[in-house]
Amino acid sequence: MIDSIQKEIWFVTGSQHLYGDETLKQVAKNSEDIVIGLNASSFLPVKIVYKPTVKTPDEITHVCEEANISKKCIGVITWMHTFSPAKMWIRGLTILNKPICHLHTQFNSEIPWNSIDMDFMNLNQSAHGDREFGFMMTRMRKKRKVVVGHWQSERVQKKIGVWSRVVLGWNELQHLKVARIGDNMRGVAVTEGDKVEAEMRFGFSVNGYDSTDVLKHINKVTDKELNDLLAVYENDYKLTSALKEGGNQRDSLKNAAKIELGLRSFLDEGGFKAFTDTFENLGELKQLPGIAVQRLMADGYGFGGEGDWKTAAMVRALKVMNTGLKGGVSFMEDYTYHFTSQKSYVLGSHMLEICPSIADNEKPTCEIHPLSIGGKEDPARLVFNTTSGNAINISLVDMGNRFRLVVNEVEAIKPIEDLPNLPVARVLWDAKPNLEVAATAWILAGGAHHTVYCQDIDAEYMEDFADIAGIELLVIDERTNIRDFKDKLNANEAYYHMFQNRM
Exposed, middle or buried by CB within 10 Å (0-12, 13-18, 19+), for 282? Predict the structure, then answer.
């Protein structure tokens, strides 16, 4: 479902012919050693590929052209080992359409005090060579990630790893197909948006389908497929007595399993990696998909409730970014508050569809409970608490003249008391800097009630993503105060009004 093995990030070193063949040979050798070192790092999820040193405008343009047309190349790391006159880069940078990470490093970590001479100085010029290159990208208004430090340090490798994961997610969006099964919840504003502009900006397509398109696949489910999936349910989850073989709700579980099998078949046949549904347009489906959606998200599919296609696409992108990390990613909603004079918290949940990738170590319980909306049979769902720790909530909203990404840093905690009568998966979190400021800033920013909840992905990832996408970013964290936040909103309005045609 998520495969980063076939993807590459190219490592391109800049220099020039001024320093002679011996220096250029050493530049190439050092660059190859850096690539070997980066590929040995546990922090990088994508293979780094060494490319020959570029020394002329034609060589630079050629490697940029190759990067553009390569299906494997998803991004480019640049480094100026010596001094590479930056006007040589104009033509190449003008056409390059892959994300850029500018690595400001040098091959040696320390100055060799007793042996340093001008030969050494001519070879190791990145301290000013990268500044020349940096000027040109700034002059050309090229958004990029800048990482400063020695290439062998853990901190530098982690930062490159963050960017690499974001580039994986960005690459996924370039060919992502989102199936919107039914429309959005009637009368709801934030789940709407400009799908044409979204495809132009992010690459993903959104198209509508009817529940009958899924029903065709449900009707083809065989008894063996059904029984095999029921056996998975029985092994992976704690089924209530009513759902076990012979229980009075067993048929409802069978219907839920058929929906999962049919929905999965529909998505796979159409090449969809993200989808939405809505309780107002279920057609002949016997129940609102609950456990089906939860398990599909756990397998890497993006999802948004009530037709929320923007969140569905972002869930998928964040799932790809999260590849190999311990924490999970889920569709989420700020559901209800816990206000006290000491501390206030948010209880996040949804009717049914919270991904078990964020669950605690307890085996989720599979249960069926009444659902008062939708007018269908009571749906099956997985019920669990989530792990404690730092996380973020993100919301992608359409502001009319631009897309805005809103991020709130939070800390999940163990529920203060048991929740014996709450039949849904849930997470309790402390919003940074506190609920009052965070909710005020979120509302002022126009953040949606649906979010993507991420346990291992942090705000740095979202900063890189916003730069690559060329969209607005607003982060609500420990340092946020409302007066400054309002100033930023006002400044951003002016900035995006003035420069929207250049973004």
Answer: buried
> In angstroms, rounded to a whole number, what is the distance separating the alpha carbons of residues 352 and 335?
12
SS3 state of residue 390: strand
Nearest by Cα to 390 from 457, 295, 470, 332: 457
Q: Are the C-beta atoms of residues 475 and 335 closer than 8 Å to each other?
A: no
Crossing angle of helices 435-445 and 482-499, rounded to 10°: 20
What is the side-by-side strand order in the sheet with 73-80?
47-50, 8-14, 73-80, 100-104, 145-148
Cite the DSSP H helix spans in 185-323. Answer: 195-202, 211-218, 223-236, 250-270, 291-298, 309-321
The whole-angstrom separation of Cα 332 and Cα 308 is 12
Q: Is cis: bond before 433, omega within 30 of 0? A: yes
Query: Can you tell me the distance from the alpha carbon of 106 to that of 294, in angstroms, rounded to the nearest whole number?
Result: 47
Q: Which amino acid is at 295?
A: R
What number is the average pLDDT over the span 94-116? 97
For the chain, what is the largest distance between any 2 Cα atoms, rounded to a whole number of angstroms? 85
DSSP state of 184: P
The residues pairing with 148 across neighbouring beta strands, listed in sequence order, are: 104
Q: Which two tokens stand for residue 419?
A: 């929740």
For 287-304, what is each residue's pLDDT tens digit? Answer: 999 999 999 999 999 999
pLDDT of residue 374: 83
pLDDT cut 90: percent of the chain above it? 94
DSSP state of 385: B
pLDDT above 90: residue 398:
yes
Q: Residue by residue, what is the 3-state secondary structure of 273-310?
A: CEEECCCCCCCCCCCCCCHHHHHHHHCCCEEEHHHCHH
| Contact of 485 with 184, CB cutoff 8 Å | no
Distance between CA atoms of residues 49 and 75, nearest Å: 10
Residues 206/180, Cβ–Cβ less than 8 Å: yes
User: Distance (Å, rounded) from C-alpha 190 to C-alpha 412?
Assistant: 25
Answering whether pTM is above 0.90, one says yes
Could you tell me if 371 and 353 are in contact, meaning their C-beta atoms sit under 8 angstroms apart? no
End-to-end CA distance of the chain: 32
CB 27 within 8 A of CB 95: no
Residue with tokens 């340092």: 479
Which helix or strand (DSSP H or E) is residue 205 part of? strand 205-209
Distances (CA, A) of 398 to 85, 189, 325: 40, 10, 29
- pLDDT score recorded for residue 247: 96
Give the tokens for residue 144: 């990029």
Cα 133 vs. chain centroid, distance in angstroms? Answer: 29
Do residues 126 and 11 touch, judged by C-beta distance below 8 A? no
